[in-house]
Every structure is written in structure tokens, then in C-alpha cells.
Amino acid sequence: MAERPGGGVRFAGYAAVFDRPDRGGDVVRPGAFARSLAGDASVPLLWQHEPGRPIGRIEYLREDRRGLRVIGRLSGSAAGREAAALLTDGAVGGLSFGYRVRAARDGVPRELTELDLVEVSLVTLPMQPRARVHAVEAGGE
């Protein structure tokens, strides 16, 4: 796999998909990330939600009509190379996010209306089955 200084594999996908129940019975509503995304705080890119395993950096993170769109670049670190290999081989393709609930409407499903975004992760089994990587680009200019 070709890599370039400062990063190798890039990917794009959705860490959250709006208005679709996840496996835990929650639904993320449009606008839930607006407050988090309005700040200047960077959001870490992790491997399987493990705080001690950063794998790269997020280049783009915004809500669109479908959900929380992410473009990330995996680093040349050992964890980043491992994630890149599994991603390009198709062994891993899920995305997920860590959060704190600021506002929700109880019910079935529970509606998450305002969230503090803590991190985004590449994962094997995303809580939201539609939260997936949709494009992978190996390094090289």
C-alpha cells in the first residue's frame, strides 16, 4: 500500500445516519451535532472506540441531509497502518461515534436531538448498520 508523508489511506463515509433506529433503539435526529460542530474542538479518530488507539485525523466532519459525514486520513503509526490494511482489505468498514447526550426525547425509539461529539471510530460492528465507509483511497498524490 502506497503511503505518503503525513498520511496514507483516506476514507469517506457516515459515522451517523439520521432518522434510522440503531441496534440499541436510539435514533439520531438531524441537527443533533450542530452545537458540537460549531466549536473549534477537534474530534479524534480512533480504532474501535479505544481512547489509547488514535489512528489518524479527521479532515472533514459535517452534518448533511443523510447524517454525519466524515472524511478521514489514516496515519503511518502502527495502529493507523493496521486500520488501513483492514479497511483496504474490506475486513473493517463500519463507522461509529462516541457521544454524551445533551437532549433526547424518551420513547421507543429514543430520539437523540442534541449530542456532544467525543470521537469518531472505525469499527468492525457499528451500532448503526448504515454507518459505513463508502470510499477508500490509497495514498499517493
Description:
- A hairpin with a 4-residue loop joins β6 (94-105) and β7.
- The protein contains two helices and eight strands.
- The chain has one domain: Serine Protease, Human Cytomegalovirus Protease, Chain A, CATH 3.20.16.
- The longest helix has 12 residues, at 78-89.
- It has helices spanning 34-38, 78-89; strands spanning 10-17, 26-28, 45-47, 50-63, 67-74, 94-105, 110-123, 133-137.
- The chain is mainly β and 141 residues long.
Total separate domains: 1
Q: Which residue ranges are poorly predicted, with pLDDT under 50 across at least 5 consecutive positions?
A: 1-6
CATH architect. name:
Alpha-Beta Barrel
Order of helices and strands: EEHEEEHEEE
Query: Got a strand count?
Result: 8
Largest sheet: 8 strands, mixed
Distance between the termini: 13 Å
Predict the CATH topology.
Serine Protease, Human Cytomegalovirus Protease, Chain A
Structural class, by secondary structure, is mainly beta
For CATH, the homologous superfamily is named as Herpesvirus/Caudovirus protease domain
Task: Return the CATH class.
Answer: Alpha Beta
How confident is the prediction overall: mean pLDDT?
A: 92
Fraction in helix? 10-25%
Radius of gyration: 15 Å
